[in-house]
Amino acid sequence: MATLSISSFIICSAIICGLISIIMYHLRRLRLYKQASQFCGPPLLPFLGNALKFVGSTEDILRKAMELLDSYPSPFRVWLGHRLFLCVSNPDQMKTIFLSQKTIEKEELYKFIRPWLGTGLFTAPASKWRVHRKLIMPTFNQRILESFVEVFDAQSKVMVQQMEIELDGAEFDVFHYVSLCTLDIICETAMGVSVKAQTESNVHYVEAVKRITGGIYRRMFQVWLHPDFIFNRTQLGKSQKECIKYLHELTSEVIRKKKMRLIKSNGIPESKENGESEPCISITARRKKAFLDLLMELSHNGAGFTDIELREEVDTMIVAGNDTTATINSFVLLMLASHPDVQDKVFQELCEIYGNDDTNERSVRCEDLQRMEYMERVIKETMRLFPIAPILVRAVTDDLNIGEHTLPKGSSVVIGILKAHRNPEYWPHPLKFDPDRFLPEETAKRHPYCYLPFSAGPRNCLGGKYAMMAMKALLATVLRSYTLKKDNVVPIENIKLKADLMLKPVEPITVRIERRVAKGCSVPS
Predict the structure, then answer these.
(1) What is the pLDDT of residue 300?
(2) CA 121 to CA 493: how far, in whole Å?
(3) What is the Cα–Cα distance from 463 to 453, expressed in whole angstroms?
(4) What gap in Å lies between CA 5 and CA 361, rounded to an integer?
(5) What's the pLDDT score for residue 383?
């Protein structure tokens, strides 16, 4: 009896302590609750808030997020369990948010990316991000970017050769070819290592990234998957762990081989392990110091990166340079195939650059990329309709006035990039594909923060210029060889999208190709 009484006392005490803790937690948040009540938003459920709205696939999640952005004025509030999110899509408000030091921290949800990318540049807290960005920026200077054009050209030619088996056939998944090409490009330009993904059909990396990003995005919105002890026991969690292990091992091996080659080039002998052959280091890497070279120097001198930080930054750079540009390129190819008049204009611009010579002979050069003005407008219009980051999230570390409203400390702000890019107030007939929206005189008329394909402010994408150059080179190489066709053009409003961290099509992007006839040029050589 005495034992039962002691047990009952312990249980009652635990319940009381738990209730007191809950009460104290909510008392400390009364100010946040009061400020949140000033914002409109969808109806709430006890404890869950609006979490049930985001049940489903990554397609469902993005669709529901866009429905909310269309239904409520900016800003409005959404609760995911006990977490307050304020959703913004007004360009003036977005400008304040992007430029403020009070919203420079990444939201806590980004911690779900850290098992994969650690605290690399994309996910790093502001204190670490400031230091690393300053160290990394020199690797993106104009001289180094220009030296990469020959790699863009060479790998794009490999892709065109690989695509020949599709000539005059049915529609095929273009992302398969483009993603392997961009993987070859990023590995060679950022790390100086040739992985030969295209010629050896190494699709494991691409598939692993696809599985990880889809799982992370679902976990972000589904609050019951937030606790590690639950997520790690789900099939989603187990799959993610396997994929991350594979990617980390791959990156670490590339770094190890690169380090071995650099040590040897400095005249420091190192014995081979297990009789393995010497790694394949590209000619570009021997001439120029690229991303990995600089980071390794800093690491070797003890002034910069630990081995773990080195891997995190390399993983971040590969993901940023591979999946993003591959997806954008695929969307551009779809738009060109769906709009033959636009494709003809792009090809005529290439004719003005290369003349009537055999268009496969002359390599793409840096000065050629600068002349591809209409091509650039096509890419920009594609990124308007299909921004690679449709939604961004930042933590609000102090009260921030954004005009008529104040974002309270302790909340998070959701920035609706896709909503802003398709807002008819700034983009007449927003679902019409019109590259001339980006003529200089048209751009000057618009709010500068209604178009943000590479984010904005201090934490904007560091590789925007790199990406534009690489995309131009790839697309020009394809169009100089092939004419793109689409049997059944899908209207833009009917293209189903999902968000696996990055914007992706639900259905594979497919096109047909026919041999490009050089005499299609209407300008003299």
Answers:
(1) 63
(2) 34
(3) 12
(4) 90
(5) 98
Task: Select from 385, 264, 9 the least CA-distant residue to 256.
Answer: 264
> What is 51-520's CATH topology?
Cytochrome p450 (1.10.630)
Query: Which residues sit opposite 173 in a β-bridge?
Result: 510
The pair of structure tokens assigned to 79 is 């609760």
Task: Give the list of residues 6+ apart from residue 438 with CB closer than 8 angstroms, or none.
Answer: 376, 377, 380, 381
CA dihedral 495, 498, 502, 507 (to 10 degrees): -60
Instruction: Tell me what pLDDT residue 448 has.
Output: 95
Contacts with 136 (C-beta within 8 Å, 6 or more apart), sequence order: 121, 291, 294, 295, 313, 462
What's the confidence (pLDDT) of residue 1?
52
Rounded Cα distance, 213 and 235, in Å: 15
| Predicted local distance difference test score (pLDDT) of residue 283 | 40
Q: Two tokens at 396? A: 């609000």
Tell me how far the alpha carbon of residue 438 is from its chain's centroid: 22
Name 394's bridge partners: 106, 413
Which pLDDT belongs to residue 343? 97
CA dihedral over 69, 39, 451, 214, signed as positive or negative: negative
Single out the residue of 330, 319, 333 nearest to residue 500, CA to CA. Answer: 319
Helices assigned H by DSSP within 289-339:
291-300, 307-338
What are the boundaries of each domain within the chain?
A: 51-520
CA distance linking residue 87 with residue 89, whole number of Å: 7
Q: What is the pLDDT of residue 523?
A: 45
Residues of the chain with pLDDT under 50: 267-286, 519, 523-525
Q: In what order do the strands lie in the sheet containing 391-395?
A: 76-80, 83-88, 412-416, 391-395
pLDDT of residue 432: 97
DSSP H helices, 174-306, are 174-191, 204-221, 228-231, 235-265, 283-287, 291-300
Residue 172 burial class via C-beta count within 10 angstroms: exposed 0-12, middle 13-18, buried 19 and up: middle
